[in-house]
Amino acid sequence: MEEIKHSHVQVRGLNLHLAEIGTGSEVVLFLHGFPEIWYTWRHQMVAVAKAGYRAIGFDFRGYGLSDQPAEPDKANFLDFLHDTIALLDLLAIPKVYLVGKDFGAIVGSMVAAAHQDRVGGFITLGIPFLLPGPDGIRNHLMPNGFYINRWQEPGRAEADFGRLQVKTVIKNIYTLFSGSEPPVARDDQEIMDLVPLSAPLPPWFSNEDLQAYASLYEKSGFRVALRVPYRTLGMDCGIRDPKVTAPSLLVMGEKDYVLKFAGMEDYIRSGAVRQFVPDLEIVFLEDGNHFSQEKLPEKINELIIGFLDKYKKN
Fold first, then answer.
1. What are the helix (H) ranges across 91-129?
2. What would the pLDDT profile of 262-272 be if each residue is shown by its tens digit?
3. CA dist., res. 97 & res. 42, Å (int)
4. Sign for the pseudo-dihedral over CA of 83, 278, 97, 283
5. What is the pLDDT of residues 264-308, one digit of tens each?
6. Do the record's keywords include Isomerase (predicted)?
7. Residue 24 burial class via C-beta count within 10 angstroms: exposed 0-12, middle 13-18, buried 19 and up
């Protein structure tokens, strides 16, 4: 990724790591999920830059090469929302195309609903429009051993992850999240126990990729990552009567385990999501999973660039 330039910028008192490529006047801001950092968008950033756009990805506070907040145990989704807007202000970007994956789609949803004038287009992968709160991820309707329920318990994921090298933790989570079933442990298991030690990496995920993620989580740890998203999913973000006015695109893999979250598939396929995002196109990828941007980069690049070109300023 030699073409991508890296820097740090001070945003709301923290140095956030920025990855950037391209010089186009139209800006695409990529928001990562877990267990990811900016690197998850490496294929898409290069592609949209070649298509004439300026691509920016950053590590959220407490992730990757960005600073840890002074009080990590108080981090929440509103911090990530305010950081995103403050970053756009600092870079003098009045309007942006947002691309969010996993919980980055939740941050993007907050930005698109609360700051409609700053968003020219809104794309999400793996998660539809959702806000934090009881009407978002309905993990209370999932089994007790559901991974989100487990990771919301103070200290439980820390103990589970702490038994293993960081590299193994990342490998296990990638393996679990690549499947079509939500990770659920028995009462006598922890989530990390669901992956055999001999389990291979997904074929589209190289040892180099694994090392890139692992080296950065070795630096940052999982303290903020467990807090946001998992332990603040139920928070009230204060956005009332949310509506996304920007043209939007949702890309879901047919094999994405998120489709089997309580109520999720119906929310998407019934079109109920359009009550919040009226101008929404939904695309299902037959071979897609929760990491379609890495498993099927050419297809995701095509969808993103096609969307951007459709709505860019003439």
1. 103-114
2. 999 999 999 99
3. 17
4. positive
5. 999 999 999 999 999 999 999 999 999 999 999 999 999 999 999
6. no
7. middle
What is the spatial distance between Cα 124 and Cα 287, in angstroms, rounded to a whole number? 17
Alpha carbons 146 and 108: distance in angstroms, whole number:
25
Q: Is 83 a catalytic residue?
A: no
CA–CA dist 104, 122 (Å, integer) = 12
Cα(301)–Cα(244) distance, rounded to whole angstroms?
Answer: 23
Question: Per DSSP, what are the bridge partners of residue 184?
Answer: 146
**Of these residues, 79, 83, 102, 256, which one is catalytic?**
102
pTM above 0.90, yes or no: yes
From the number of C-beta atoms within 10 Å of its C-beta (0-12, 13-18, 19+), residue 198 rates as exposed
Q: What HEC string does 36-98 produce?
A: CCHHHHHHHHHHHHHCCCEEEEECCCCCCCCCCCCCHHHCCHHHHHHHHHHHHHHCCCCCEEE
Whether 96 and 28 have beta carbons less than 8 Å apart is answered as yes
Which tens digits make up the pLDDT trace of 29-88? 999 999 999 999 999 999 999 999 999 999 999 999 999 999 999 999 999 999 999 999
Annotated active-site residue 17? The verdict is: no
- Bridge partners (DSSP) listed for residue 253: 285
Enumerate the β-bridge partners of residue 282: 250
Distance (Å, whole) CA 257 – CA 163: 26
The reply to whether 241 belongs to the active site is no
Selecting among 230, 256, 257, 267, the annotated active-site residue is 230
Residue 308 φ/ψ, nearest 5 degrees: -60, -45
- pLDDT greater than 90 at residue 313: no
Strand duo 248-253 + 54-58: pairing: unpaired
